[in-house]
Amino acid sequence: MNKPRGLFWIKGNPGTGKSVLMKFAVDMMSRRKSGELVVSFFIHGRGVALQKSPLGLYRALLNSMLRSFPVYLKELTGRFKDREERYGSYERSNGWRWTDKELETFLSEVLSKGTKSQPVVIFVDALDECGADEAKRLLTYFQNIMSDVESGEALVKICFSSRHYPILGQETMSKLYVEEKNDGDIRLVIQNRLKEIQPPKKREKIETEILLKAHGGFQWAMLMIDMVHDGNTTGARTQSLLRNISTIPDGLDELYAVILSGVTKAEEQLMTKLFRWVLFTERPLSTQELREALATDQDMTCTTVEELRNHDNYSDSLLQFEIHVRHISRGLVEFHTRDVYELYELDGEDWNREAQFVHQSAADFVLERFLSLPDHGSTYKNPIGTGHYEISRSCLRYITLTEILNSGHLSRGQLSIRFPLMPYGVAFVLHHIRAVEKQEIPQTDLLALIQWDRPQRFRLLAAIWRMMDPDRVYAPVGWPFEEVSPLHVLVGFGSTSSLDVFLQKDVTQLVARDSYGNTPLLVALRENFQDLALLLLNRSIAWQAEDEDFGASVLQIGAGVEKRDYLVHVNAENDDGETPLGIAVSVRSDKAIQHLIDAGADVKNEKGLLFHAVDSRNKVLLSRLIQKGANLDGAVFFAVKSLSRIDHDDDDSLHELLSDLLEAGANTSKYVSLHQEYEDESDDDDNPYAENYSGDEEAIIVASRKGMTQLVSLLLSHGSSAAAQGEYGVFPLFAAVMNNHLETVKVLLSAAPEAVRLTAVHGDTALDVVSDNHSFDIALHLIQQGEEPDIPLRLLFIAIDENKLELVKAILHADESLMKRADETGENLFEEAVRGGRHEMAELLLGMGEVDINPLNAIGQSAFWSTLVRADIKMARLLIDTGAVDVNENWDGRTPLWWAIQEGNEDLVKLLLDTGEVDIYEKDEDGQPTFWWAFEKGVDLVIETFLASDKSVLNKKDRSGRTLISQAAFRGNAELFKRLLATVRADTEVIDYYGSTLLSLAVHGGNDSIIQLLLDRTKFDINVKDLYGRTPLWWAAFKGYKAAAKLLLNTGQADIETKDNCGQTPLSVAQGGVTDILLDYIGRNTGWME
């Protein structure tokens, strides 16, 4: 749990302390204050549905987490409000509900995406108590979450616990086996619980014996401790206690069997009754409720609460009752304090204590072993059915006690305080009756139990029931149907067995209506009691057939007969205008729907039925509706929408239904009042460009948007228009193009080539959309197959930029005027191709007509110059080959050749020189000729070209009066100097405009090899002065060039005393070591040193 993410599994046998360990872990992690959000859920196998189901788990975890994730809280709250508006209150009976899948997906998203900055630690206890299948599903769910968490580096840790069975495998997961680690804890508990037993030796022997047999079983040890205490209290000897411990089996089931053995018949019956109430109630009962329940009996003769509370099982105080229950159950039932409970009276008695089995293993034993014994059941060999039967009958007996029936003047709170079993009885008696029905136990006593045959008492009961359940949360609307018909009551009970026995051939009861206008059939369908509805329908159909057969035979012999219509209730409407068929459709009861149609239900205006037939792919039902003349409006659209929600277009059954509908002449428009239960929340995108846009009103637009080509063809063949336009002007071709469905585009364009010119919102055409989507295959098809398409210039530029040759060719063939158009920056098509390095595209454009290849861009640069800058030789050659470019074009004071030389790109230099048109003598903005830069950069091609020039070219002077050889000397470029000398055409006696000879410039350059070459030529006068009166030696001294000074002095001709125009001699200006060289020279040649 110290890692940032991961799964941890705590496994153990029943009763080894898994839940205790989990509670401890939750508490410790919560106290760490590490910034982690710690949430937990303890699955309760004996609790209500939300306490033992994945749905309850997801709801609890999200409830605990979402305050720390406000973005997700807002999203879920928004969903809730939307559902409330669409489907009504969440709280109402049969209202909308969160689904497992929806909350499971939402929780996954929160954990995998929302926890990167807020770590979450989740504890889930007793995974096995939600059932084998659900436990395995939850384990897989946790593993999938963790996979997403790890890949997204979210911060989630999940710790869960379970028994070894039914969740097997997954041995690679980090885990802990509790029974292998808890011996020390069991020892501490045993020592603490037995510390009062004296003497110490006796206690130590008992402790050791229990620990030896516990085998990691905490629950077994605790039960043994209780047995030891009981024995010690009655004075049992040490040996007797040790013998009992040693002889009792070390398995929990065997221990439970020992604990519950040796009781009297009366005790056993009371024990059985207690266990049923604790095991089969829909929620744990409070102490107050259970005290009333144990005093009540399914066969009791008492009729008043006073008589009930004089029962031997009724304790005077709640504390005494808890002791009594512990005694009856032999310690297997205990009372816990509730976290949440209902307060019926301010400052009144708390109802905060509830009865539970001491452990899930005890509940399992009671159900599977104890109550399954023949002596503990009833005439029905079904412990579950028998348990629900006893509870339901006891509740009905209790509710009809005289004092309760006469308390109609009391409030709900007052009734609950005076008669504690009333809240549970009213809330869950119908549940228990239906549970009995599921176990196929006959219930022919229900009308008598509810006192239907005693109208006055039944009216009192109805008033009490309305007070206790005013919103009919736990019972059908109209319950308990006083002054209506017994059929309503039996249907409200949900008892098929009772209705089957009672149902008589009487049309009066079939058409009887409650205060809401509901017949028994309507009630059965509203409550989704399909078996009851089918029973009523089948019986009605049979009676009608009998009467018609009888009437026909009587008619044959000429006798008169009164004709009864036993099927009149098939089309009955309640006060809300609901019909049996409409309700059957809303609850999706297929069998009831078929039987209602068989019985003559009117299908013409049941729009929901039509949608149901499509939604359930019921071809037979749809055929019957078509035959009976049902209104088919909206069915095609709904079918297409249904297909659009799946990932594939191969639902053959739905395609067949569509064909049948179209053949029957159904329209293709959306039905405005589409039933909410058939809407899909995935269709909530309000972006008209989205694939799941919800605003389409034509089937062909929906099909086109999803790329269902086969379906589009089918719709077109039955008259749908390929040019139909819906909201925002969206038309089929536009919808198909938006979502890149090429095959669908082909079909639509074949049907309506002019649709390529249609415009949708903001005047966009299909070609505008492909420009945005870069759907080039679709664009090509639209241009080639469309009728006079209006092609956006932007598409052409994009196609050029993406090098889509065929598309560009098709565009320009379709509209030649685009060739001369420029984009918003002023750039033309050819420039776009050139600047993008699209060689084939440039060739294509050049071959398509007149192209301006020399326009300047925003920085004054031509297309040719842009190829030079990008060193695109191939494109440069292509441009040069057109003969339309100036290879000496000046840009920013530079020529193409200058640029090629500066970049050292010999391929480009060669390309330019090969034209025979470049001027290597062209000067740059500094007045430097191009060829000089070639010598500087070592570009041989230019150098060789220059050296091959005649004498006049070689000795051409620059603005300083220097030739190339002068510059070579001045810059100290020995290689160039030598190559120029080797031509024998270079003028070595050249003097620049400053009076500098080649030797003087060579001294400036400081290259000894050039100086030596010049000195080797005898014609040089080394004392020639420049315009400033300075000789080569003066400059060597001034610059501190020792080697140059030595070379000059070694000739023996250098005048060391010469002065410049300012009177300075070489010695007076000498720098560095040149001074010593001059002094040494003077000393050796004048004797001055001596």
Automatic annotation (TrEMBL):
InterPro entries: Ankyrin_rpt (IPR002110), Ankyrin_rpt-contain_sf (IPR036770), NPHP3-like_N (IPR056884), P-loop_NTPase (IPR027417). It comes from Fusarium torreyae. Gene3D superfamilies: Ankyrin repeat-containing domain (1.25.40.20), P-loop containing nucleotide triphosphate hydrolases (3.40.50.300). ANK repeats lie at residues 576-608, 892-916. PANTHER family: ANKYRIN REPEAT AND PROTEIN KINASE DOMAIN-CONTAINING PROTEIN, ANKYRIN REPEAT-CONTAINING PROTEIN-RELATED. Keywords: ANK repeat, Repeat. SMART domains: ANK. This is Nephrocystin 3-like N-terminal domain-containing protein. Residues 5-163 form the Nephrocystin 3-like N-terminal domain. It holds the Pfam family Ank. GO terms for cellular component: cytoplasm.
